[in-house]
Design brief:
Residues 55-68 have a biased composition (Low complexity). It is found in: Membrane. The protein has 849 residues and is an alpha/beta fold. It folds into two domains: 2-142 and 650-848, no CATH class; 274-570, P-loop containing nucleotide triphosphate hydrolases (Rossmann fold). The protein has 31 helices and ten strands. Strands 1, 2, 3, 4, 5, 6, 7, 8, 9 and 10 form a ten-stranded mixed beta sheet that branches. Helix 1 (2-20) packs across helix 3 (90-125). Bound molecules: guanosine-5'-triphosphate (GTP) and magnesium ion (MG). Guanosine-5'-triphosphate (GTP) binds next to helix 10 and helix 17.
Length: 849
């Protein structure tokens, strides 16, 4: 019954009010929904909507409650309440009831308007961004000071990492350097006392003297280990020189010279095959000697000048089905052009003849062009082996003896299975007294690179000729160790007619060879021609006779020279390598090692107290001593500086951004949370009916209105609490956690090095206190008290002016052109401040000017 009655009353009130003031709907049923808050920025529409609705409600309420005691609406007729227990007649109840119902509905509308206004002013002004900035600023300062206070704790926690060299962005250079110098020093000291000591060299030399062919493996081992030790010493010397920086270039050159020799020896010792070079004057019998070694006439040997092209005999290599027999390598275009342009004139040649010869050479090359870059000869059909071999011989002889080919063919390589010894090749070069300059140069070059050389001298000649002496001198000057690998071969002594002439020539040649540095055990008198002759021929018999009768030297000279050569390659040569290595160490390493050890002391490259402790202990001690400085310089100061500058950035450089963000975040979040708060209605009339029953409805609405507003204030304060927590949570994450991340990123060695004592709870409380200090008076002034209770409301407004004058001024400023009664009331009270002056009055009045 009451519900029906009330509903009808509500509808009637709504229709009447609509008739009177269309812009001020007072019924909750027809009231437009509250404006939807913008999520991203404070909407202009929102201001507009609030402006009009608050204006309207203030003017309507003030009319209703204050200025006009009679209801503004035309009289409404209310049907008598059905089923009422009242003893009064319905007409007697009608008028007071109508007044009470109107007043209740107006109060309900007023609550809705006040809610909107309260939400608007809290959303916009409850958060003072600069206050928030000060709050955050204070927090960051607290963090900075915590970080500073914990400086020593962090240092302590990181010191182990420092000792273990785990601080990845710090350089440990100094210790590394000392460690390296120390290691080099120790290594040099050990080398000086062991492998570079006099005893060690004596031992090695003894070993060499007594070494048997069986000790070849041991010799190889000694060689290799010595090479690697010398290499290490060289690296230490070089390192020390660089550290001392004393090294004038001379010392560098000196070391690199040793290094070069070392690599040369290493290369020589690891060579798979050795090269034996046969040198001597023209017609000394070089090619004949080689043929004798092979046991048949492979190379051309003749009484006139014969070998023109460098020829090398190599062990046979099987190449699939084909037996590779010979390879002729031609000079390339560039090489040929150089030779051809510089072709020297022969002693008996005029310019014209030279030009003709040059032309002939060019033509000969042109004819061979299709065979470039090399021509190969091999047995194509093994069934015709002998015939094909003869043909190849002829062809090769043509090349070897053809003077035209000197500048065309670089080398002729002949592969044969008749080489007498293992792993060596024989090199036949033209006589070095040849009028062709290229021949002389080739001779010298060949000796330089050969493992051994056989110097053939014609024993028939009375003494060594000038070119022979010059060549030998040159060899000895350029290669001090060359005579170790030189063999002297005296040839053609079988041509002597008598035993006496033989003996005389032999003695002379032998003496001259000894004088030139040949070792006596490396000198032989040979008759290689005999090896190639048919034992039935006359010449063989004559030579054999002479050999038997002329003396021991000649008899088995060739065989002995061949055996000596084999032995030299297999056994003596590795020995000479080791010998040279030993000499290199003794003559070139001992002194520099002693010098560098002195230098380390003299320049104090190593600390004195290193003598009393191990390098590890020393470095540990060093590190402990340097840790304070390192920590300050590399860890604490950079971390602090970075945190500090971040702080400055937040509170100074990005102050405006901070203010906008904070304001926007609070506004959006608060408006979001108040949606359902704004949508609820307040049926004061119904509440009064339920509480006091119809008959007593003529009572004042004011107590019910106040109770309702009380509940709403509590509800709104709760929403402010929630929003404040949301904002505080944002501050915590952004600034407190952000600070920790910055610090811990600067010291990535311990990810959780810094943890602040400023808790989320503390942040929540402090933010909350600041926001509520402003928001609570706002709720009181705007929503808590009805305009029916004007004195109390005025007190609340005055509190707002005193507690949050800026917010009050803002409300007035936004309402400047409107008749908002809250704004009007605030302004009025600000004017009244004059009557009761206190210290804050002038400040407040200034704000409102
Ligand atoms: N009786 C005798 N004749 C020899 C001996 N060695 C070489 N001949 C001869 O001396 C001549 C020249 O010998 P080669 O072997 O061609 O001399 P070469 O040193 O190679 O000469 P080039 O290549 O022109 O420098 C040939 O006729 C050989 O037969 C020897 O020991 N006794
Ligand atoms: Mg020859």
């Amino acid at each position: 019954m009451f519900r029906n009655k009330h509903q009808r009353g509500g509808e009637a009130a709504a229709s009447n009010q609509n008739g009177v003031n269309s812009s001020s709907p007072t019924s909750t049923a027809t009231r437009p929904p509250p404006p939807v808050p913008s999520q991203t920025r404070i909407s202009e529409d929102l201001f507009a909507a609030f402006d009009s609705s608050i204006e309207d409600s203030f003017s309507s309420s003030s009319t209703t409650t204050n200025t006009n005691p009679s209801p503004p609406n035309p009289p409404r007729s209310y049907p008598p309440p059905a089923g009422s227990d009242s003893t009064l007649s319905s007409s007697a109840l009608q008028a007071p009831y109508e007044r009470a119902a109107d007043s209740a509905n107006t109060a309900a509308d007023q609550i809705i308007d006040d809610k909107k206004e309260a939400v608007f002013i809290i959303g916009n002004y409850a958060v003072e961004p600069l206050e928030m900035l000060h709050l955050v600023d204070r927090w960051i300062q607290q963090l900075l000071s915590e970080f500073r206070q914990q400086r020593d704790i962090f240092k302590h926690r990181l010191s182990d990492k420092w000792q273990n060299e785990e601080l990845s962005n710090i350089q440990y250079d100094n210790n590394d350097r000392i460690r390296k110098i120390y290691l080099a020093f120790k290594q040099l000291q050990t080398a000086r006392d062991t492998i570079l000591s006099r005893e060690a060299f004596d031992d090695l030399n003894n070993f060499l003297r007594n070494a048997e062919e069986l000790s070849m493996e041991e010799m190889k081992e000694k060689f290799n280990s010595l090479v690697s030790e010398y290499g290490k010493i060289l690296r230490c010397l070089d390192f020390i020189d660089r550290e001392v920086r004393a090294g004038p270039t001379r010392s560098d050159n000196y070391l690199s010279e040793i290094d070069r020799n070392l690599s040369k020896l290493k290369k020589l010792n690891s060579k798979m095959s050795s090269t034996i070079c046969i040198i001597g004057l023209e017609k000394a019998g070089k090619s004949t000697f080689i043929n004798a070694l092979l046991g048949y006439e492979l190379l051309p040997a003749a009484s006139e000048r014969c070998t023109q092209v460098r020829t090398v005999l190599k062990p046979l290599v099987e190449d699939g089905e084909k037996r590779l027999y010979a390879k002729v390598q031609f000079y390339d275009e560039q090489e040929f052009r150089t030779f051809h342009e510089q072709m020297p004139k022969k002693t008996d040649e005029n310019e014209e003849q030279l030009q003709t010869r040059k032309r002939q050479v060019a033509e000969a090359r042109e004819n061979l062009r299709e065979k470039f870059p090399e021509e190969q000869f091999f047995i194509q059909n093994p069934a015709n082996y002998d015939r094909e071999r003869m043909a190849i011989h002829q062809e090769l002889h043509r090349y070897i003896t053809g003077e035209l080919y000197v500048n065309i063919i670089k080398e002729i390589a002949i592969y044969t299975d008749r080489l007498p010894g293992k792993n060596y090749e024989l090199l036949d070069v033209p006589g070095f007294d040849s009028p062709i300059k290229e021949h002389r140069d080739a001779g010298l070059e060949a000796i330089k690179n050969a493992d051994a050389f056989l110097f053939l001298t014609n024993g028939q000649q009375p003494s060594l000729t000038q070119p022979q002496i010059q060549l030998l001198n040159e060899i000895r000057q350029n290669h001090f160790e060359a005579m170790e690998r030189a063999f002297g071969i005296i040839t053609k002594l079988d041509l002597c007619q008598t035993s006496d002439t033989f003996k005389e020539h032999y003695r002379n040649s032998h003496r001259e060879l000894i004088e030139k540095g040949f070792k006596p055990e490396h000198i032989f008198c040979t008759c290689s021609r005999l090896q190639l002759l048919d034992p039935n021929c006359e010449e063989y018999r004559v030579i054999e006779y002479k050999m038997k009768n002329f003396g021991e030297g000649l008899n088995d000279g060739f065989k002995r020279s061949k055996d000596a050569l084999n032995r030299f390659i297999e056994f003596e040569l590795p020995k000479t390598h080791l010998k040279q290595l030993i000499d290199l160490g003794r003559m070139h390493l001992t002194r520099p090692v002693a010098e560098r050890l002195e230098k380390i002391k003299e320049k104090q490259l190593l600390p004195v107290n290193l003598a009393d402790m191990s390098i590890d202990d020393y470095i540990k001690q060093q590190k402990t001593e340097s840790w304070d400085g390192v920590y300050e310089k590399n860890i604490f100061n950079p971390a602090f500086a970075q945190a500090n500058s971040w702080h400055t950035k937040v509170v100074t450089k990005e102050r405006a951004k901070f203010a906008n963000t904070v304001k926007q975040k609070f506004h959006d979040s608060f408006i979001d949370r108040t949606q359902s708060f704004l949508q609820t209605t307040h049926p004061i009339e119904d509440i009064m009916c339920e509480q006091f029953e119809y008959s007593k409805l003529q009572l004042n609405v004011h107590p019910t209105d106040n109770t309702e507003r009380g509940k709403l204030s509590v509800e709104l304060e709760k929403i402010v609490d929630d929003t404040s927590n949301y904002l505080a949570d944002y501050f915590y994450r952004e600034y407190i956690c952000g600070f920790e991340v910055i610090i811990n990123n600067v010291c990535p060695f311990l990810k959780d090095l810094f943890r602040t004592q400023l808790t989320l709870d503390k942040c929540l409380n402090e933010t909350h206190a600041l926001i509520l200090r402003v928001a609570r008076p706002m709720i009181m002034a705007a929503l808590r008290y009805s305009y029916l209770d004007l004195p109390v409301k005025r007190n609340a407004i005055q509190d707002l002016i005193y507690i949050s004058p800026t917010a009050a001024a803002n409300i007035v400023r936004h309402k400047k052109d409107s008749k908002s009664s809250l704004a009007v009331e605030i302004e009025k009270q600000v004017k009244d401040l004059n009557s009761r002056p206190d210290s804050s009055t002038p400040v407040i009045q200034k704000l409102f000017d």
